[in-house]
Structures
1.
Amino acid sequence: MEILFEASYTRIEYDADKGIIVLRLLGEIQHEDYKSMWDRLLDEVTARNINKLLADQTGLQKSSMESKAWLVSKWFPKAKKILGDDMKVALVSSKSLFTRIGGEYIVNAVKSMSKFDIKLFRSIEAGMEWLCQ
């Protein structure tokens, strides 16, 4: 795994052999950092022409509802326009109930707005296995 970007709130990794970008959400993410993280992810996915993403929320403690709303209403439409509908996304849920509910909200919103193949997983291994099928 090659680390493409790292900060206190995220790590973006690239598995060139599998053609997968991994976004790790870490700790308590402030709104501006949240926006920056997702914009950087889009840049990395676009630069490498990737269509498989694993978003790992297991290390996420907290992000605001404002951030989730921004992701769905602003970032996602832009990403969809750039990436098209051929995306396979595995979301590894947080152990925190509130954070997991937020992730489920995002998954359901993305499913209703696109043809992205997006699924929730309890482990990174299960998500990676599905992405490699």
Note: The chain has four helices and eight strands.
2.
Amino acid sequence: MSKSSAHVDRAVRIELLRAKAALEREALVSSVVGAGRDLTPSALAKDVWPRLASMKGTTIAMQAYHLLRRYPVVGSSLSALALKGGGMLAGGGVMRLLKVAGLGFAGFKALRMVQDARSAPSARALRDEATVQAARRTL
């Protein structure tokens, strides 16, 4: 009797370990999908925007200063964008026009991302749920 009991106990233990592994895989898939959603440019922009709106001008200036000190590549890129560009194209007006057009395009895309995020949060949740379901099927 103890042999069959030991066999049943072992089978139950194996099933419990399999269930635990399946739950851990599902939690991992859910975490990866959530991290992917949180690291999209629109989610990062939504995260930064309320903080910038609530900050004072001096706080924003200090944050920009610390950012430029920590990442010198950002500062050199901004200074390169600020230069006139007469060396590349004669006149410099063309470069200014390109810069303004680029800034306008970036602003337009940011506005579209904000509008999409406000209008369809449920669509994003459905897409994420579909991704989780597809990942579950592959496990």
Note: Helices lie at 2-38, 41-54, 57-70, 72-82, 93-119, 121-138.
3.
Amino acid sequence: MSVIPVDPEQFSEFIDKSKIFDTTRQLMTEYLTNWYKDDAEIFVENMQADLSTVLEHYHFYHEFVSITKNFNFDPPMDTVSCTIRITDEEDDCCARYRTVFDDQLKIIDDTIEA
């Protein structure tokens, strides 16, 4: 019996049907593009390559999806987070991109940790 009150099979179905990783990847591409346009020097310093190299040669791995009760809201809100790990051509981790969605899968926030 699972201690977590979420059916793992239903959660896997949710991930597949919602295509949350596809949505997150599109948002990540927009985020990286905007970051590069805003400050190419810092982008290259953090990502160790220019935008086209990152998008064409780096690897993007589905890392995790989680459901969270977010207490930063009043009343607390259920949110869904999706993270993609970005690695360079040698598969060394460069960054993690995370998107937070509300319970209707509308974006609340996105961040990158380089």
Note: The longest strand covers residues 59-70.
4.
Amino acid sequence: MKKTVIRFTALALAVCLFTGCSIANTAGGESEADRKNVSGEAVSGSVAAEDDGILAGRNQNFQENSNCRYTIAEDDSYIVQFNRAGKQKKKIRIRFDIDAIEWVTDKWFYYVTDRGDLWRMPVKKTEEGEQLLTEKKEKVLEGCGEVQYATDLYVIADVWINEIPVLCKYNCRTGKRTELVTVKEEDDEAQVLWGSGYYPLMWQGKLFFERRDKLCLLNPEDGEVSPLHTFGSSEGDWEDTYILDHFVLKGDELYYTTVETENLYRLNCSTKKSECVMERKECQKEVRRLLYEDMDIEDIWCELMWLDQDRIYFAFDICWTEKDKTTGKKSACYKEELFSASVSDLTQLRHEDKLMDYLDKKSTVKKGSDVTANEILGGSDGVIAAEYHVYKQEKVCESRYVIYDIRTGEIRETAGKDMLENYEELLY
């Protein structure tokens, strides 16, 4: 998953306000000398290592630090704080503009406003738990795009420069801005890869990013870019679109599908060798064999993919045509099915019967309707979120949500509000 897709609105808004980011004076937490040192000067090319903290490669939700996770209420009136186990601790009332959480560290809470400005507020540790010092908030950047990574002292963010999004590093203490990836053409931007658990994919402390026909690694500390893989013509055509579609990382191995072929590939980041481990046609053949052997399936495509323990989960959209017994008219039918496969043998798909049977029994959407009977919302840490639909009246359809624990097999229904607050990362 790419964070750019998830929150494209904020990024688009930024380009309307500024063609570049300017550094704003900060209030509190900085010396007068530091504040006067803010210049916003851009530096292209390699970056000298700075004494501003070490980037700790972490695969955790960008809304989390080592103690808590934060979300914003639907009406934007308060911030909800949870412990790492997912239990709500408290609601923090806010009386200022906050559009989205951008990053949380153990010392700072970064957020963006409706105008696309990046702010932050200190995180204080107390005996009662973490506190957000809302009265000490400070502006970091004006007109900034979305944050791809952050530490206590700097942020890695997309910035619109000459109407092109450029991956930059900002030192919050000195105000120094550095272009990490030099971009000169509109179709040459660096697209950072984000996992389904709401975190940027990292390998050995380096960020993955896609650029034209190449997959690269970026060391945020010194700005070094290392080419990892050049996509072949059999994988896609970068002139039309980004090549990567879905991707997950397990150890040294990156599993990915491409938009054009939908084949599944495995790239060893150490050896830089890539191989196709599951062709789309073979995958479709297996899906048909397991579930739809007697049906005339028109198309099967992957809608979602994520990794949990040693298994990769695939949510497939299935399309076929059926004739109405009463009217005789043909109509397209759609259904989503969940499968998984062990990374040791990706050719052996397993249909997730328990969850899918539950959803099928609960949903009441009619065949031929433009509303799918159910939808897999995502998975993380042994939990899968799903949605099914029921008709209360002839044309009124309601959504119901369930949480499935793949380790215990427990399925429980949950309210939409609970889904937003407790399983927000599973909704994308």
Note: Residues 28 and 136 are 7 Å apart (CA to CA).
